């Protein structure tokens, strides 16, 4: 019940296109859903996060869509750029991030020119 | 934004020695810090959760006597890998929860420490 399933495992998108990564969870106690971006040899960096009281949150080119009834959330990267090439992890937690996060398995995103 | 630092960034040690990794929140007080390990091309696995002034809570399967965690202050947590062996070689990452406006919110991650045990 603590699992967070993430897909796809890898994704190749042309420059300027939309990158979409999906996650699904089971634990209804989760109330905090962040996305992290990680470059090789670096720690994860928080990109954007959402709470279940909204269905969408947008920050710049990054948008989270959240479907509470389906227990799914997704990251959309608009106008994808080569600099966005990285591994992306979704996560879910309780108590607004104060408690431990359960991470998805990661998506390796490659943006090609 | 909130900054979490780790020291050292890389460490190479001989089998059987102990290694200490520091995690600091530089511009905020962290009520809770978390320690993760990450193997190449894999996700982050939570090892333990530590709250300032109290004992760490370890995840199932993590040896508390091997991975000693001390959370001495609201800005510093340390992970000591005791009697390290080659299988302990990994990328260790800490994170810290920031308290903002009276509500604990958001985890920020450190840059990670690459441990190689020869």
Describe the structure.
With 113 residues, chain A is mainly β. In chain A, 0% of the residues lie in helices and 54% in strands. Chain A contains no helices and eleven strands. The model of chain A has no long low-confidence stretch (mean pLDDT 93). Chain B is mainly beta. Helices cover 0% and strands 59% of the residues of chain B. Chain B has no helices and eleven strands. In chain B, strand 9 (90-100) and strand 10 (103-109) form a beta hairpin. The termini of chain B are far apart. In chain B, 34% of the residues are buried. The interface between A and B is medium-sized, with 23 and 25 residues.
Features:
heterodimer, A: 113 residues, mainly beta, six-stranded mixed β-sheet, five-stranded antiparallel β-sheet, 11 strands, 0% helix, B: 118 residues, seven-stranded mixed β-sheet, four-stranded antiparallel β-sheet, 59% strand, globular
What would you report as the Rg of chain A, rounded to the nearest angstrom? 13 Å
Cα distance spanning the termini of chain A: 40 Å
Q: By helix and strand content of chain A, what is the structural category?
A: mainly beta
Please write the string of helix (H) and strand (E) elements of chain A.
EEEEEEEEEEE
Average residue-wise pLDDT of chain A: 93
What global shape of chain B is seen?
Answer: globular
The percentage helix of chain B is under 10%
How much β-strand is present in the residues of chain B?
A: over 45%
Question: What level of helicity do the residues of chain A show?
Answer: under 10%
The largest sheet of chain B is: 7 strands, mixed
In short:
The complex is a heterodimer of chains A (113) and B (118). Chain A is mainly β and 113 residues long. Chain A is 0% helix and 54% strand.
Secondary-structure blueprint:
The complex is a heterodimer of chains A (113) and B (118).
Chain A: E1 4-7, E2 10-14, E3 19-25, E4 33-38, E5 45-50, E6 56-59, E7 62-67, E8 72-77, E9 86-93, E10 101-103, E11 107-112
Parallel strand pairs in A: 2-11
Antiparallel strand pairs in A: 1-3, 3-8, 4-5, 4-9, 6-7, 7-8, 9-10, 9-11
Chain B: E1 4-7, E2 10-13, E3 19-25, E4 30-38, E5 44-51, E6 57-58, E7 67-73, E8 76-81, E9 90-100, E10 103-109, E11 113-117
Parallel strand pairs in B: 2-11
Antiparallel strand pairs in B: 1-3, 3-8, 4-5, 4-9, 5-6, 7-8, 9-10, 9-11
């Amino acid at each position: 019940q603590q699992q967070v399933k993430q897909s796809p495992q890898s994704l190749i998108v042309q420059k300027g296109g939309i990158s979409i990564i999906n996650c699904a969870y089971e634990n209804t106690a989760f109330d905090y859903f962040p996305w992290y971006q990680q470059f090789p040899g670096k720690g994860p960096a928080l990109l954007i996060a959402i709470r279940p009281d909204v269905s969408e949150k947008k920050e710049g080119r990054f948008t989270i869509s959240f479907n509470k009834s389906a227990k799914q959330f997704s990251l959309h990267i608009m106008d994808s750029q080569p600099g966005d090439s990285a591994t992306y992890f979704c996560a879910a937690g309780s108590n607004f991030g104060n408690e431990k996060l359960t991470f998805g398995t990661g998506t390796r995103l490659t943006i090609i020119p | 934004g909130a900054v979490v630092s780790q020291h050292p960034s890389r460490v190479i040690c001989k089998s059987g020695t102990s290694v200490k990794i520091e995690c600091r929140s530089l511009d905020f007080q962290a009520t809770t810090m978390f320690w993760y390990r990450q193997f190449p091309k894999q996700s982050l696995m939570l090892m333990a959760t530590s709250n300032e002034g109290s004992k760490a809570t370890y995840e199932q399967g993590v040896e508390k006597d091997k991975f000693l965690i001390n959370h001495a202050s609201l800005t510093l947590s340390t992970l000591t890998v005791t009697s390290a062996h080659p299988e302990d070689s990994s990328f260790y990452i800490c994170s810290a929860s920031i308290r903002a406006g009276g509500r604990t919110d958001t985890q920020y991650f450190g840059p990670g420490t690459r441990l190689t045990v020869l």
